[in-house]
Amino acid sequence: MNWTSRLVGLGSFLRHTNAQETGIAWRDVVFNILVAGGCVHLVREYIAEPTKCIGPSMLPTFNPRGDLLIQEHLSVTFRQIRVGDVVFAVSKNDPRHIVCKRVLGMEGDAVEVRDGRQGALKIEKVPEGHVWLQGDNTINSTDSRHYGPVPYAMLVGKAFIKVLPLNQAGWVESKIPSYAKHDKI
Is 57 designated active site? Predict the structure, then answer.
């Protein structure tokens, strides 16, 4: 029997069977699909989802052409973000975009900021309810040095696993880069 006759036979079977003959109620199938879709939505919205980090601002941590990461939302929801974590936040410059940056200061911290282009040194105090975000590539990153502290409510997730490229897959390290200094005030 060739594949065309099998396909015709399958179509005929589906047209002439009813729920009693197959034991399948189509409303159950639809219900299960809706439940599965709802579960996927809940996981992606509130627990974790795949995200791509593209651009030069996080070099050498991430590739400028894009790394596939898993971001989790629970750390943001339960306010467990710490200095050194890589986070995703709504861009202050363009709210339609999500940026990937490292947290260099939490509320109450004094962050020593050196502008990558000019090398000027200044101390910034992070106000209550805000974080200081900065790219690892200080020479080519638009971050809190340009738009100031970011409200905590603009954080959407924390990067915790790098999936692609496979040869670099693993946990995303939470660290304070050597160029950064911060103190509690």
Answer: yes
